[in-house]
Amino acid sequence: MAERYLPKWELHRQDTATSALDLAKDFIDNSELLPQGNSFSVAEQTAGRGRMGRSWISRKNDGMYLSVILSPKRAQAEWPTLSFVASLAAIQTLNSICPDVPVLLKWPNDLMAEDRKLGGILLEADGPHAIVGCGINIKNAPEITDSLFPSTDIAKYQSKIPEPQELAELYINNLENLYQIWQNCGPAPLLARWQDKSNIIGRQLTVTLGDKSVTGICDALEPDGRLNLVDMDGNVHLITVGDVVLMGEVNASRN
Asked: What is the mean pLDDT of the chain?
């Protein structure tokens, strides 16, 4: 079943699938239609996954499980910044529907509420296309054994719980609007918005990079989305990928 809610963008709903991402990939491989804007929402994922191949527990109707196909016109080097665009769309959606949820963004792709994981973004390239995946815990947040943070859900903060379909429709609307800004103006204005909604700027962080880690103060995001981390010796580390552990607020006496 497909519901047209904006010109050229369609939301496809399915009860069960291995993952919404797999549905998007199948559509790219098998459809003769232009894929951009086609979005796939499933009530239950039997093999959901998150960043770095981690599992994403996706019980039926306990969350929003969604993937959206984009066909970016900007240089592929800028595509990784689409994860920030997707994060902004998610926080706009939650702020509109779930005003009691204290959601903030954690680099590079997490939705956090009181330092607990509420949701996340997954971005994958597929030829000339990018697939944006978004998962948000609505109720019955699962225990996640392979995450640095405990999970939480919308139901912990408010009694009025949105339906997954309601979240999906508004999310896609927000994503489409932000994506057009990204296409026309590049990532810079959206990265600035992302910083304003972030819980990491000015905080002391430890970033794990494989078998080593770096600790310092997060000053800002670079124009390409890399994390700018200043260690206690004043060395600047520009980090492309890693797991962030939040350690505390920046010391006010630090210059």
From this structure: 86
Sheet holding 110-113, edge to edge: 2-6, 9-17, 38-45, 63-70, 129-137, 116-126, 110-113, 103-106
Q: Are 160 and 150 in contact (CB under 8 A)?
A: no
Query: 248 in the Ramachandran plot: left (φ > 0), alpha (ψ -120 to 50) or beta?
Result: left
Domain boundary among 173, 196, 219: 196
pLDDT in tens, 93-128: 999 999 999 999 988 889 999 989 999 999 999 999
Name which of 173, 124, 141 is nearest 21 in CA terms: 124
Distance CA 34, CA 31 (A): 8
**22, 108: one domain:** yes
- CATH number of the domain where residue 209 is located: 2.30.30.100
- Determine the residue type at 104: L
187 and 211 housed in the same domain: no
Cα separation, 135 vs 51, whole angstroms:
11
Same domain (yes/no): 79, 108: yes
* Strand spans (E) along 84-209: 103-106, 110-113, 116-126, 129-137, 203-209
Model confidence, pTM:
0.86
> Which range marks the domain in which residue 16 is found?
2-196
Q: What is the CATH number of the domain that holds 170?
A: 3.30.930.10
Q: Are residues 126 and 209 in the same domain?
A: no
∠ at Cα 218 (143, 183), nearest 5°?
Answer: 85
12, 1 contact by CB (below 8 A): yes
**DSSP SS3 for 20:** helix
Compute the distance between CA of residue 175 and CA of residue 173 in angstroms, rounded to an integer: 5
